[in-house]
């Protein structure tokens, strides 16, 4: 599918989203497929574990503490991904440090060209963590498709991921862009 999309000029976004149960017993087959899709992609997204397990790119220890202090390590990992998959133009990773089931530090790093957009990990309340990474991707891609800067798209992605963590569904359901920007700004005021 990625080959056909590329052939017809479609932009390809690939969220690696490694799932151990899916890979079990198929590691070589899936590694080759993921590497080929990544080589055709315009946008590559994954966390540190995704890049390491799917693409064999060295990165920071997965799930570590004090994630904010490891931002340079994440940038170095993205640099290695950029070198290996130079056809892509935008690279992204989320930063999540689990303080407790209901409290996470949530951040993101996006690289576009020579620039890095970093959202330092910020504390977010969590009702259900499932879907936060997917919603980050959705918000980021929404901004890309709207023609926003990488920084603005990153901020919007961060906020949609944070919003998803406050819901019992796997996806954020914002009323409009203003609600997402209110989350980014840390504004809890209700607009009537």
Overall shape: globular
Strand runs, count = 5
**End-to-end gap:** 46 Å
Q: List SSEs in N-to-C order.
A: HEHHEHHEEEHHH
Structural class: alpha/beta
Oligomer: single chain
Q: Could you tell me the strand content as a percent range? A: 15-25%
Low-confidence stretches: none
Radius of gyration: 16 Å
Instruction: Please estimate the helix content.
Output: 40-55%
User: Averaging pLDDT over every residue, what do you get?
Assistant: 92
Strand order of the largest sheet: 1-2-3-4-5
Tally of individual helices: 8
Q: Let me know the largest β-sheet.
A: 5 strands, mixed
Task: Note down, in words, how this protein is organized.
There is one protein chain. The protein is of the alpha/beta class and 192 residues long. 44% of the residues lie in helices and 20% in strands. It has helices at residues 2-7, 20-23, 27-40, 48-55, 71-84, 132-146, 150-164, 177-185, and strands at residues 13-15, 43-45, 90-100, 103-112, 115-125.
Task: Give descriptors for this structure.
single chain, 192 residues, alpha/beta, five-stranded mixed beta sheet, globular
Per-chain topology:
Layout: H1 2-7, E1 13-15, H2 20-23, H3 27-40, E2 43-45, H4 48-55, H5 71-84, E3 90-100, E4 103-112, E5 115-125, H6 132-146, H7 150-164, H8 177-185
Parallel strand pairs: 1-2, 2-3
Antiparallel strand pairs: 3-4, 4-5
Helix pairs in contact: 6-7, 7-8
């Amino acid at each position: 599918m990625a080959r056909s999309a590329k052939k017809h000029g479609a932009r390809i976004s690939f969220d690696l989203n490694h799932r151990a149960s899916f890979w079990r017993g198929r590691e070589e087959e899936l590694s080759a497929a993921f590497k080929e899709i990544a080589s055709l992609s315009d946008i590559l997204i994954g966390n540190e574990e995704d890049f390491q397990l799917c693409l064999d790119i060295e990165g920071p220890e997965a799930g570590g503490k004090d994630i904010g202090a490891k931002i340079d390590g994440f940038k170095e990992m993205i640099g290695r991904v950029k070198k290996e998959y130079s056809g892509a133009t935008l690279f992204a990773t989320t930063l999540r440090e689990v303080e407790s089931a209901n409290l996470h530090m949530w951040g993101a790093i996006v690289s576009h060209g020579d620039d890095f957009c970093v959202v330092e990990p910020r504390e977010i309340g969590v009702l259900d963590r499932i879907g936060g990474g997917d919603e980050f991707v959705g918000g980021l891609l929404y901004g890309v498709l709207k023609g926003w800067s990488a920084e603005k798209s990153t901020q919007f992605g961060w906020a949609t991921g944070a919003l998803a963590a406050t819901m019992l569904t796997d996806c954020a359901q914002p009323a409009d862009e203003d609600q997402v920007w209110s989350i980014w700004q840390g504004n809890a005021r209700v607009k009537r």
